[in-house]
Amino acid sequence: MSDLLDRLKPLVLCISLFLPVSAWAASELNNSDAAILINRMVAAAKQADFQGTFMHQHGDSTETFRIVHVGSELLEIERRESLDGPRREYVRKGDQISIYLPSKRPVSLDRRFSSKLFPQHLPETAEAVLLNYKLKKLGMERVAGLNAQVFELEPRDVFRFPMRLWMHTDSGLILKSERLGPYSQPVELFVFSNLVLGKFDRALLNPVNPLRPVVVESNQGVASSPVEPLWQIEHLPRGFRFLKSIQRTLLGKEMPVVQHLYSDGLVTVSVFLEPAVAEVKEAASHQSAMHMYVRQIDGKMVTVLGEVPADAVKAFAYAFNPRK
């Protein structure tokens, strides 16, 4: 047996160099320690000065962005610019946002989303995260040449997916985030390829494209269900807050559709309410981590869509019933 192990040693060493880094020993943090770490990550993303380049990979799509951010002064300023594909640019000065897009169509942004762009992924308060997730400490890795402590946000129920965060040990800034799917496979990735922390030339904040201001909608969400005259809404999945209701006409639809938006602070779920469509049957489907559930009842149809597990979209669909 020892001879066999000796012969296999070079092979074992070779294989180990290419093993995934998921074999970490996880240790769950208590809520007090977890809150300190989450607040540190939130503060670093708002208060640090940095410039760098990061990649966003989602499904088969990969994009690269340059980001410069000033947080050490009275007014938080950041500029983002796409480096591949059509030109896009985003500049935020405090609550004022301006963008450049190839299209001239009107654009509005939700303040909650615009303040949660990488590396500002987390809600303002740790309590909002820890209500629905546990924080587990994994191992250490290097990202963009910097030392990072790896954490995992593990859901407390079956209605959301885990997320991993690589936190720079010196500054607390999130260097990498990875959303996992139903089989614990990565489904969305943000990662810095290079990052420089500290003061930099303020000329880098100047836009390079003709920007236009956008309307920023402010909505923090409410814990209670909305009042919908045609629908009874009860027993929604725990931890999701109602954000807003929108009536819109979707491509391929003759009648307006009412869309309800819900969020737990990390993911968003859309519920579409409309008259029943004869050829549509009750069904579930998914693409990667995006799940959908369609339900018809009493001449009406509910369609639920979100990057949450199948159990979550089904629970949302059955929380909506026509009023008698």
From TrEMBL:
GO terms for cellular component: outer membrane-bounded periplasmic space. It is found in: Periplasm. Residues 1-25 form the signal peptide. The keyword Methyltransferase does not apply. Transmembrane segments: none annotated. The keyword Signal applies. Residues 34-199 form the MucB/RseB N-terminal domain. One of its GO terms (molecular function) is antisigma factor binding. Residues 229-317 form the MucB/RseB C-terminal domain. One of its GO terms (biological process) is regulation of polysaccharide biosynthetic process. This is Sigma-E factor regulatory protein rseB. It comes from Iodobacter fluviatilis. The lineage of its organism: Bacteria, Pseudomonadati, Pseudomonadota, Betaproteobacteria, Neisseriales.
